[in-house]
TrEMBL record:
Gene Ontology molecular function: any one: transition metal ion binding
Domain of life: Bacteria
Organism whose genome encodes this protein: Candidatus Desulfaltia bathyphila
Protein name, per record: Ferrous iron transport protein A
Keyword check for Iron: yes
Record's keyword annotation contains Mitochondrion: no
Keywords: Iron
InterPro entries noted in UniProt: Fe-transptr_FeoA-like, FeoA, FeoA_core_dom, Transcriptional_repressor_C
């Protein structure tokens, strides 16, 4: 399951980052590290972006970026 499939108010744990190169490194730099818990806060009305709570911070990603993060529901 990927992060873009998670609904608002659901929590999950990051399993893997499937993107390589610059995008994969960017996600890792922002704290999207395997084993980290993440919660979906809300989806924007026009699809992008999606807001997440990660390590006490709110971070927004496009759905195309969130598809690169594999997760499991908690």
């Amino acid at each position: 399951m990927t992060l873009d499939e998670i609904k608002p108010d659901q929590e999950c744990e990051i399993v893997d980052i499937t993107s390589e190169g610059i995008m994969g490194q960017r996600l890792l730099d922002m704290g999207f590290i395997p084993g980290t818990r993440i919660k979906v806060i809300r989806n924007a009305p026009l699809v992008d972006p999606v807001e997440f709570e990660l390590k006490g911070y709110n971070i927004s990603l496009r759905h195309s970026e969130a598809k690169q993060v594999e997760v499991t529901l908690l």
